[in-house]
Amino acid sequence: MLTQLAIRDFAIVDTLDLELAGGMTAITGETGAGKSILLGALGLCLGERADAGSVRHGCERADLSARFDIATLPAARRWLEERELPADDCLLRRVVTAGGRSKAWINGQPATVADLKALGEHLVEIHGQHAHQLLLREETHLRLLDDFAGNRSAVNQLGETFRRWQSARRRLRQLTESGDEVQARRQLLRYQVEELDALALGEEELATLEHEQEQLAHAEETLREAQFAAECCDGDEGGVLTLLHQATQHLDPLPGSDRGALAEVLAMLGEARIQIEEAVRELNRFADATELDPERLAWVESRLGEVHRIARKHHVMPEELPALHRRLQAELAGLEGSEHDLEALRAEVEALRDGWRERARTVGEARRQAAGKFGKAVQEQLAFLAMGKARFEVEVEARQSPQPDGMEAVRFLISANPGQPPRPLAKVASGGELSRISLAIQVVAARHSTIPSLVFDEVDVGISGATAEIVGQLLRRLGENGQVMTVTHLPQVAAQAHHHLHIEKRAKRDSTLTRMALLDEAGRVSELARMLGGVNLSDRTLAHAREMLDASQQGAAH
Q1: Across the chain, how many H-helices and E-strands are there?
Q2: If DSSP codes are grouped into helix, strand and coil, which group holds residue 378?
Q3: d(CA 529, CA 226)
Q4: Rg of the chain over CA atoms, in angstroms?
Q5: Chain-centroid distance, C-alpha 122
Q6: What is the DSSP string of 325-342?
Q7: Dihedral pair phi/psi, residue 266, rounded to 5°
Q8: Residues of 179-209 as b/e, b for ≥16 C-beta within 10 angstroms?
Q9: Distant-in-sequence, close-in-space partners of 341: CB < 8 Å, separation ≥ 6
Q10: What is the pLDDT of residues 212-227, one digit of tens each?
Q11: Is the whole model's pTM more than 0.85, yes or no?
Q12: N or C: which end of the chain has fewer CB within 10 A?
């Protein structure tokens, strides 16, 4: 139940805090006073679309919040708990900036507008002033009958099954139609994968082959140069070691003082001889280990040639061949199993079809059983609304093709006069009759709603006199089991309310503001008198208003 509505800088409202209670609340005011503002603010809190025009002129933003008591709303509590939000309270907040951007919160946590809308479906049900126009559409008839029958969850599941069924059918058709293409692709992939299997190029093999090819190709030259270098160092007559030995022999016998001065040079020559001797040994070892293998070189070069040829064939770099091999193997594996997938997909389509048919049959039976009950309930309300001679029926027909919501088309039929066959609403009902029929249907639908807060926005348009009083009594009865808020221009309806919210527009210097307040008993009499007789209230009008209010409240008590 809606317990509080707070509005800041919205439309022509600067500040408003409303405390709301259960029962029926009438919302009245002169035309243009801003009754729609209240419903607009509530609608934004429930996820309706926002725009910059929502912000009061000259302000930066509009701030709106609605608090609900959800102690008796398990669906709303479950929705909050599933999202790990506090479920002991429910506060929806919406901020709209002058630039048209908006933010939303649920119990203080940031939320999306879609979240507000989803949660709002468990909190408030709004019956708009154009509801009678929606009643001319057959999809509305189907939805109302399903709500009456308690089919909402089953129809949602039916629609989900239908969407899965149709999706599987599309996949099956695509797979079947592409059979020739798949076969051609499978044959190509088999050839390519077999060729790459035969190549069997390892991850690091290319680098190894290139390094080995370079070594083998230059082995003869390398061996020749290494042997020449060794000869230069250790030749019999002109080698470096021979020359170093000769240099040392010439310096070593010098007299003591001269030899001392050259001691460092002699040490360096000795170290050089040792280094050259070690270099010669390494060169000889390298020459002994180096083998000329023209057959191996030919094989390596042939292997590299084959790798590059296949790489060019696939338009990739040689080093990319292993990754290409894996991709083609994976694609081929997928296509190799496509025949099995085709059979599995056929089985899935059949299972989904059968599941949908079973669900649709159950939903259809529930609709046909509920149709008579719904028609009878609306018939009773029409009699209460002075249309006792009218005959209302709910027609359930089989559709020619499956639809997401089942195999039935639902149509509301009415016969306003005795002896005439029932016909669709749009073809027989006058404006006043349609308003009463619409209200009767909405009352029946609301009685079977699990949502305790109902909003009726001028649903009594086209009704007057004694019928208006009966409408008020209907709405009051609905309010006794929950919360009903109704925007009305009819004093007969407003007099039936448990509470009365008055809205008026006031001009203040260069601005216009809307004021809203719950009326006490004296205020209610004055407002009812205004609704009865206009601006200038006579004693007779005030007395009439007092009598109407007393009679309504006493009648309700009985």
Answers
A1: 21, 15
A2: helix
A3: 123
A4: 46
A5: 19
A6: HHHHHHHHHHHHTHHHHH
A7: -60, -40
A8: eeebeeebeebeebbeebeebebeeeebeeb
A9: 175
A10: 788 777 777 777 787 7
A11: no
A12: C
